[in-house]
């Protein structure tokens, strides 16, 4: 019987393939979906099946760790994209609100101008009728009457102006206390300030000396300054409490001594308006998250939320 040419090489190759198959399939931890791990010929010749299984397991563990890392990176990237999309949506909503407010303001201005023109026309007609009556009865000629409603500009001298310095960014809102000589201001530097304004004629800051001012900080270790811009503020009717709204979606209640009394958190977007009721026990806040909330200030809890603003 003749042995075919290359039979020995074929048998050796099949033996190595079988050994490689055994190292991959005889692992009790391997599932049917595990990837086949190819081994080097030198390892197949010099190592037994147990060592080969160990090599296959180590490769699979390393491959699984790499896959887990890639999955974590993709998950983190997805969260970043979601946050970025939410932030862009909030900015677009705020821009839409600003455009709507500007459109409404323009319409009101047009209506006021139309009303003013109608009043001027009516006044001119009355003056013309009066002139005709005087001429008909031989009376004296009337004096010229100015029908313009625009007041003449008046320049206030700097000696009558007091400049309040201290904010490091734009001032977004100001409000006088209904009682006393306190002025509250809110700024993009993440602070509100309560200024005590001296009575009497205003003088320059150098003559008045340092002003009495309380700084109400709206920052903490978890958020940055930009997210806490103070956008709106309002005093209660008694002038004992100051409510502030900020870009982080929180409303804060302060005493006239600068003490933070409570923090009201529920909005998911910046607060751009707030208002006390006359009694001073409820506070209404409006936000870019398209909701308005009524708060019980004493209980520090929200009573009702109005949604679906557009």
TrEMBL record:
<feature type="repeat" description="WD">
    <location>
        <begin position="164"/>
        <end position="205"/>
    </location>
</feature>
<keyword id="KW-0853">WD repeat</keyword>
<dbReference type="InterPro" id="IPR019775">
    <property type="entry name" value="WD40_repeat_CS"/>
</dbReference>
<dbReference type="InterPro" id="IPR020472">
    <property type="entry name" value="WD40_PAC1"/>
</dbReference>
<dbReference type="GO" id="GO:0006357">
    <property type="term" value="P:regulation of transcription by RNA polymerase II"/>
</dbReference>
<protein>
    <submittedName>
        <fullName>WD40 repeat-containing protein HOS15</fullName>
    </submittedName>
</protein>
<dbReference type="GO" id="GO:0000118">
    <property type="term" value="C:histone deacetylase complex"/>
</dbReference>
<dbReference type="InterPro" id="IPR045183">
    <property type="entry name" value="Ebi-like"/>
</dbReference>
<dbReference type="InterPro" id="IPR001680">
    <property type="entry name" value="WD40_rpt"/>
</dbReference>
<feature type="region of interest" description="Disordered">
    <location>
        <begin position="60"/>
        <end position="125"/>
    </location>
</feature>
<dbReference type="GO" id="GO:0003714">
    <property type="term" value="F:transcription corepressor activity"/>
</dbReference>
<feature type="repeat" description="WD">
    <location>
        <begin position="264"/>
        <end position="305"/>
    </location>
</feature>
<keyword id="KW-0677">Repeat</keyword>
<dbReference type="InterPro" id="IPR036322">
    <property type="entry name" value="WD40_repeat_dom_sf"/>
</dbReference>
<dbReference type="Pfam" id="PF00400">
    <property type="entry name" value="WD40"/>
</dbReference>
<feature type="repeat" description="WD">
    <location>
        <begin position="223"/>
        <end position="254"/>
    </location>
</feature>
<keyword id="KW-0539">Nucleus</keyword>
<dbReference type="InterPro" id="IPR015943">
    <property type="entry name" value="WD40/YVTN_repeat-like_dom_sf"/>
</dbReference>
